[in-house]
Design brief:
The protein is mainly alpha-helical and 409 residues long. The protein contains 15 helices and three strands. The protein has a three-stranded antiparallel beta sheet with strand order 2-1-3, sandwiched between helices.
């Protein structure tokens, strides 16, 4: 089977270029006639040769084009459908390259196709773009190529990426409202302190003999802000940058921060169960895809961002290398994984279905995670409204108190 490129006319009279797969040009023309399409031109689709490799190199401009998880899921879903329909890998990639609209994604697909034409495996071609296709994806592709079930494996990758996208959207949605409330209140308070209060202060001091304590506090804060606002913002920025760099580069500090943040009231359970779901879901998918236990643990360790969980996974790898069970180190790390996970893994080890047990544990804890996200959102919103609204109310009441004192005099 080969790909043929043809030009036809749509209902609006516009010329469009499409792709059809057929054994030869005659069969392609016959199939197009059967579809009652008006064909203006038909030729075999040109495939790039090695000399055109520079055409697919990612430029500096392409780096600003972000490739999201949802787009990768769609790519693997379409590639799986084409492969399961009997289309060759190179031809399937050519079809996806032709229909791709995003510049960076189109270049990546073309580069992958070019590498495969040169005799490279799909997983080696994906290694060129390791920042886009993570180790979990590449490990599953390698397992699919080894077992001869690449089409099925790509479909499983698409399912997994879609679950990741849905999970991220849920986390982002839960944080949008609190972020908006904080930003709006900070802007309002800053506007009052920087512009409104300085305009009223001279009048209040002129007319009133003695200002109320709250009015005096607001005036003093406003005066301080006018003088030291640059130091305030630069100091806050420097402190945040120092905290970020310390967290990023000091492994010991990051370990304890990641461990303690799962214990914080209200938001701690969200961090805790997010790690549990990541661990169980990814490990179940990789083991079920035919990846070895040791390699699966290594891939999951690289995926998880929590350093405390990474330490536990390193302990798991050591136990597996010694020929011991996986459930023992999970049970010992009860500060990071609930007892149910260790129990489910132990059952899976006895029955020889660790991947199925992990999948059940992932489903259970994902429901718990959703519950805690909803609970966090429900609790954080009123707390923020009361706290930040109290700040705005205090400033407004202080101004009103000063004005009333002025009229009493």
């Amino acid at each position: 089977m080969a790909l043929f490129e043809y030009t036809t006319v749509d209902a609006a009279g516009n010329e469009i270029r499409e792709i059809i797969e057929a054994e030869d040009e005659r069969n392609a023309a016959a199939e197009l006639r059967a579809q009652r399409k008006l064909v203006l031109a038909l030729r075999k689709a040109p495939l790039a040769d090695e000399g055109e490799g520079k055409h697919y190199e990612i430029s500096l401009l392409d780096l600003f084009s972000f490739v999201g998880v949802a787009e990768l899921a769609l790519f693997f879903r379409q590639l799986s459908s084409l492969l399961n329909s009997g289309v060759t890998l190179v031809n399937a990639l050519y079809v996806l390259e032709e229909q791709e609209k995003k510049r960076r994604m189109r270049k990546m697909i073309g580069r992958i196709r070019l590498d495969i034409q040169g005799g490279t495996s799909l997983v080696d071609a994906l290694n060129r773009f390791s920042k886009v296709f993570d180790e979990r994806v590449r490990g599953m592709v390698a397992a699919g190529e080894t077992s001869g079930t690449l089409g099925t494996m790509l479909e499983r990758i698409a399912d997994h990426l879609e679950e990741d996208a849905a999970f991220r959207n849920q986390m982002v949605t839960g944080a949008i409202y609190p972020a908006i409330v904080i930003i709006v209140v900070v802007v309002v308070v800053a506007f009052l302190v920087a512009f409104v209060i300085p305009k009223i202060t001279p009048l209040l001091k002129l007319k009133a003999q003695r200002l109320p304590w709250n009015t005096q506090v607001v005036i003093e804060v406003s005066n301080w802000f006018k003088v030291y606002w640059l130091y305030l913002f630069s100091g806050t920025g420097a402190a945040l940058a120092l905290m970020f760099l310390s967290y990023r580069w000091l492994g010991g500090l990051r370990y304890w921060v990641d461990r303690l943040k799962t214990k914080v009231p209200i938001i701690g359970p969200v961090f805790f169960y997010a790690v549990v779901v990541q661990f169980t879901r990814n490990l179940s998918t990789l083991i079920g895809s035919g990846v070895s236990m040791l390699e699966s643990l290594r891939i999951v360790r690289d995926i998880i961002r929590n350093n405390a969980a990474k330490k536990v996974l390193e302990t798991m790898e050591t136990h597996i290398l010694r020929g011991e069970n996986l459930s023992a180190p999970i049970k010992a790390a009860d500060y990071m994984f609930p007892p149910m996970v260790a129990s489910m893994v132990a059952v899976g080890e006895e029955t020889g279905s660790v991947d199925a047990s992990l999948a059940i544990a992932a489903d259970i804890h994902e429901k718990m995670l959703k519950t805690y996200i909803q609970r966090m959102t429900a609790m954080v919103e009123p707390i923020l409204i009361v706290f930040l609204g109290g700040i705005v109310g205090f400033v407004a009441f202080a101004l009103i108190s000063g004005i009333l004192t002025m009229y009493k005099v």
